[in-house]
Every structure is written in structure tokens, then in C-alpha cells.
């Protein structure tokens, strides 16, 4: 297995118990300062999206927030991982197991959990839930949505791509053709066209719902990137979870520019060998959302409703590792100012 199972030094209750959580691919990272007999009393359950901790992208960003909650809030945490191709009932059972074992709050990483969170939260009104990247008008009041303006950060990525492209052709690779990932595409294209209205943007989606494997298939990401490289793309932005790792490999091997997503991918250990070809990354500060929500819960005043982390509030940004975008700082700052002032309205859906 890619990741080892670590058993928690905590007392777990309920008939399902630790064995049930372990069967769901979960692992505990109990903070030694928060034992069964004391500690902060804060027990956070996290249910990851496909790819889990170690994806070098979206889930890892959430994991950093959880690690901060352990270190700074003294939280006991449990991490439950998703499986590619799992059924909706698997997601529900994962959340139920966390409830049974006393975790509160429970944070679901990714819009794929929306239905499961709604159902389990409705059945457990005394437990607080947070879901990242989804906001539904039908979810119960004990669910908080933590969302981001991905289109704004992607707009800046588009500005960078068009500014650096020599061929006049750039690419976008989306993991799953969903409303969320279309926000990345829409912003990226709009940003690129703000620099070069005639730029050619190639778009490829790896899978369509209900197939979410497009977020966890580096082979597909590599193949899609190679297809775009063959068509002349010299900058490729992949919003595809760990599938984007394959895209980065293909682009770097070809000596072109890759743009990472969610985490600063040039600084991720598994991708550092490609850092000279990672132009930038559109960083989505999921870690900030996870920590802020966890702290608000511990402080007794949990964030409720829909909390949006935007460009103005540093919810999204561009990574500067490697200094590859230093020469276009003025362009990027101008675009940032236009967005944060409201002068530029970034589309959230691809324009026909």
C-alpha cells in the first residue's frame, strides 16, 4: 500500500469501531498531546477525495490544514480515504463511521461528498460538518460550505500562460468535466485572452461524471498532455488532482511550461525534479479553510453557511517558486488589482 495504517491512541465508541474505519481505508494521526484522557478535546474527522494524502495537490493542501490543527490546536484527527470507483453508499458509510467514533467536526474534501454529507448530516443534527468545494441550497444547517474563487486564480494562470507562450497555443486539462472544474477552465481562458485575444486554447477533460477517476490517473494526464503538445501547446495547465502529475511529467520532458494546481507543485517532493519546467501553480489555500474552520469550532463559534475564500482574501494565488514569473509581475499585479477592485468580472463557466 502507498500509505501505512496508523492506529490511534484514542478510545473509540460504537459498534462499528476502529475496524470499520480501517476497512474504509482510514488512518489515524492522533496528536500525542491529545489522548483519550485529555488534550484539547477537539476530534476532527477528515474524509479525503480520490487520491488522498500524498496526491501532491488538492488533498495535500487539505492535509496541511489538518496538520496545523493538530500542531496548534492540539486536535486528535482521523483521516479516511476514498477509493476509485466507490459507490455513494461507501461515502455515506465513511462519514457514518466517523460520527460513530465521536469525531466532531467532520470535514469532507471535495464536491463528490455533497449527497453523502447532506444525508449523514441530516441524520446527525448534533454533529458539525464542513464540505470543501460545494454549496447546496438543500444542505442542513449543521453543514458549512468552504468554497473558493478558482476562476480568479485561474485567470492569473491564463495571464501567465499567454505571456510566456511562444507558439500562440496553450492547453487546459480538466480531471472531470464538472461545474467546479469548468470554473478553472473559464478563468484560464479569460485570462489568456486578456493578453492575446487570438490565442488558441486546447481543452481536454479526462473523464465525465459519474466517473471521477480523472482525478487519480497520472497516465491519462500524461497522455492528454502529450496530445496537446503534439498540437503545438507550449504551456499546459492541468486542474486534475494527481492526474496532473502525469501532465507535468509529459510537459517537462518536452521542455515546455507546465502550470500546477491547488498546491505549489514545484515545491512538492514528488514533483521537484520537474520544477524548472513548472511555470507557476494556481494555489488554492484549502489548508487555510480547513484550519480556520477547525479553529472556529474549537473557539465555540463555528463558521456557518457558505464561506468563500477569494483572491482578495488570499484564498487563491499564484506560486512564485523558481522565479519563472518574476518578469511578468507587473502584468499579474495589474490583473490582480482589476479583479479585486471589481473592474474585471471573471466568468465562472466557459464562454461559447
From TrEMBL:
Chain ranges of the ABC transporter substrate-binding protein PnrA-like domain: 47-319
Localization: Cell membrane
InterPro entries referenced in this protein's UniProt entry, alphabetically: BMP_lipoprotein, Peripla_BP_I, PnrA-like
Classification via Pfam families: Bmp
Keyword field contains Cell wall biogenesis/degradation: no
Primary localization class, coarse: membrane
Signal peptide residue numbers: 1-22
GO CC aspect terms: plasma membrane
Topological category with respect to the lipid bilayer: Lipid-anchor
CDD domains the UniProt entry points to: PBP1_PrnA-like (cd06354)
Keyword entries, A-Z: Cell membrane, Lipoprotein, Membrane, Signal
Family affiliation: Belongs to the BMP lipoprotein family.
Protein name stated in the entry: BMP family ABC transporter substrate-binding protein
Amino acid at each position: 500500500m502507498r500509505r501505512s495504517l496508523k492506529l490511534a491512541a484514542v478510545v473509540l465508541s460504537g459498534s462499528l469501531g476502529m475496524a470499520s474505519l480501517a476497512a474504509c481505508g482510514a488512518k489515524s494521526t492522533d496528536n500525542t498531546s491529545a489522548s483519550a484522557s485529555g488534550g484539547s478535546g477537539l476530534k476532527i474527522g477528515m474524509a479525503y477525495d480520490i487520491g488522498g494524502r500524498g496526491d501532491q495537490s488538492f488533498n495535500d493542501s487539505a492535509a496541511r490544514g489538518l496538520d496545523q490543527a493538530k500542531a496548534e490546536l492540539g486536535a486528535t484527527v482521523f483521516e479516511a480515504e476514498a477509493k476509485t470507483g466507490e459507490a455513494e453508499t461507501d461515502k455515506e458509510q465513511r462519514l457514518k463511521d466517523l460520527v460513530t467514533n465521536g469525531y466532531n467536526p467532520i470535514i469532507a474534501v471535495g464536491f463528490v461528498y455533497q449527497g453523502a454529507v447532506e444525508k449523514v448530516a441530516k441524520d446527525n443534527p448534533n454533529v458539525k460538518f464542513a464540505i470543501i468545494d460545494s454549496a447546496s441550497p438543500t444542505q442542513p444547517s449543521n453543514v458549512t460550505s468552504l468554497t473558493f474563487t478558482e476562476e480568479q486564480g485561474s485567470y492569473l494562470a491564463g495571464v501567465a500562460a499567454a505571456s510566456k507562450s511562444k507558439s500562440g497555443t496553450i492547453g487546459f486539462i480538466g480531471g472531470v468535466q464538472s461545474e467546479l472544474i469548468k470554473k478553472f477552465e473559464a478563468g484560464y481562458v479569460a485570462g489568456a485572452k486578456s493578453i492575446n485575444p487570438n490565442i488558441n486554447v486546447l481543452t481536454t477533460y479526462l473523464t465525465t461524471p459519474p466517473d471521477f477517476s480523472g482525478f487519480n490517473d497520472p497516465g491519462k494526464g500524461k497522455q492528454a498532455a502529450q496530445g496537446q503538445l503534439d498540437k503545438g501547446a507550449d504551456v499546459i495547465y492541468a486542474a486534475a488532482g494527481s492526474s496532473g502529475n502525469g501532465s507535468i511529467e509529459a510537459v517537462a520532458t518536452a521542455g515546455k511550461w507546465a502550470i500546477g494546481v491547488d498546491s505549489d507543485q514545484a515545491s512538492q517532493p514528488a514533483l521537484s525534479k520537474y520544477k524548472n519546467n513548472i511555470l507557476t501553480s494556481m494555489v488554492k489555500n484549502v489548508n487555510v479553510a480547513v484550519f480556520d474552520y477547525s479553529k472556529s469550532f474549537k473557539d465555540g463559534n463555528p463558521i456557518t453557511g457558505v464561506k468563500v475564500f477569494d483572491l482578495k482574501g488570499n484564498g487563491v494565488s499564484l506560486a512564485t517558486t523558481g522565479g519563472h514569473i518574476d518578469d511578468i509581475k507587473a502584468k499579474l499585479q495589474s490583473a490582480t488589482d482589476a479583479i479585486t477592485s471589481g473592474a474585471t468580472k471573471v466568468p465562472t463557466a466557459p464562454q461559447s
